[in-house]
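Hey, I'm writing a tutorial for new members on how sequence and structure tokens pair up, and I'd like a real worked example in the thread rather than a made-up one. If someone can provide the structure for the chain below, I'll link this post from the tutorial.
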Amino acid sequence: MSAGSPWQDLRGVAFRQRWVDAGGVATRVLEAGADDAPALVFIHGTGGHAEAYTRNLGPHAEHFRTYCIDMVGHGFSDKPEQTYGFLDYVAHLRDFLDAENIDKVSFSGESMGAGIAAWFALTYPDRVDRLCLNTGAALYLAPEVIERLTRLSMEAVQNPTRESVRRRLEFLFHDPSQVTDDLVETRLAIYRQPEFAKAMPAILARHTDPETQRTNVITEEQWRSLRTPTLVLWTTHDPTAPVEAGRQVADWIPESRFEVMENCGHWPQFEDAPTFNRIHLDFMLGR
């Protein structure tokens, strides 16, 4: 199926874009759904942005107050000079929830977003209802994966052209034809922000600096202590870790469900949105 423009997916969806002051960080958010519905926050991956979830916002807003946010250092949110470890993102996420007066929430994170969501649940377990870890789990990545991710990311932000940004986006997809011109233009506009090139090395340090990597990886003992109902969702063509890695994490989590999506890469929520939305909503609604 063709991905089309990410904004085509929002036709007919009553959504809005705004910026929230989250502890002094101007945080961009796309949101939809009833004000009194349970809260659900989608969290993108490294170098990503809220448009990763344009194909999921509408279906989930039928059941949840649904937020897709640009994490600190990403998208069109502020990019302060700071460290960008998982606990830094957790603090930003906490400040966002506090600013929105959200006491309890479900999280769905992709790649880096999965690590943020898991660390938040470990840090503030009473504030998390349900959790989805989508092709990520704060794992050690293979050296060749880190090298490829770092190279593609730095090429795209240091020399942001349509070609370099397209190559970075194609890393996310099993079918590279799903990387449309509109998606390229969206990320190109983000990567051309002068402060983004300054932020990216700090963002990537979670993988490139051994000590920083060690303090950001979640251990088996920590996974076994997690008491939040968790969906671990992997794909058959994930470029960062094999299916077995996701299955191992699911086996460690006491209350977990494990699902594998076929013929998808690192963005299954976008590459096969109908299947993702069905699996994801079934879990989030406790079905």
